Amino acid sequence: MHAAAVRVPCSTSNLGAGFDCIGLALERWLDARYLPDDGPLRIERGGTLRSIQADTDDDILVHAFRAGLRARGVETATGLIHATSDIPIARGLGSSGAATVAGLVLAAAALGQALDREAELQRAYELEHHPDNAAPSLYGGLVAVARGDDMLRPLSLPLADELTFVFAAPDVEVSTRRAREALPDQVPHAVAARGLGRVAALVQGFASGDPVLLRIGFEDELHVPYRLPLIPLAQEAMDAGREAGAFAVTISGSGSGLIAVTARDRAHAVAEAMARAFGGGVAFTSDADRRGVVSLDQ
Prior knowledge:
Strand content: 25-35%
Number of strands: 11
CATH class of the largest domain: Alpha Beta
Low-confidence stretches: none
CATH topology of the largest domain: Ribosomal Protein S5, domain 2
Distance between the termini: 14 Å
Mean pLDDT: 95
Order of helices and strands: EEEHEHHHEEEHHHHHEEHEE
Largest sheet: 7 strands, mixed
Radius of gyration: 19 Å
Oligomer: single chain
Shape: globular
Helix content: 25-40%
């Protein structure tokens, strides 16, 4: 094994009607670097990762790194991983998905193997169960994931160049587990059918930049109504974003963050309006990351 480093973008998933199947990579990154030595495998964390209190054995990135090595016949790992990130934790930007992708791809790079995105997507799904976060982090851009019997098929979708995005979140975490528990076990057939039409509008809206289609596509009845009450002032922040010029706003991932799509000349106004509505927290503008995970020069 030799020194290696990777950069992984965060992802916002669901995007309204694209529940559990569509995600988008954004320009916030996790950087992970592996330095071989004879000591036990350990991790140093920087940036937003400093807030993580997990021991090395319980760290998501380390767990994925070891899984990536085992998949290649290496059972014992030594050395140091240094990881730093500017991705907010537990705010709906796929921080755990990015860590999983980072660990898997770093393992391949440390063994001198070429990146196989399709294989790593399957491994990430087996580890983390959220392919709509892992796929954008691996491939970049806007990605849908179709699921078949024991198979995942990532589909890169067109994304209009003029669209940009605003993320805003309060100083409140919403765990994925809690957000999942808020969902009903069943929904009426009519609700599911309406959702299918909205997915079509969402995909075409992203491709064309059409604000009307994006508004339709960001509407949802499968998850948003059940998760919105978990996020203080979320409705107020969504309304503020739209009033400031956002085409559409919805929950990012499982929350607590919100994601807005807008034109570039309105992005900063939208971010400021949503941050005011939340009374603080974090807010920033971002274009899509269109590269996905990349190796960094040593």
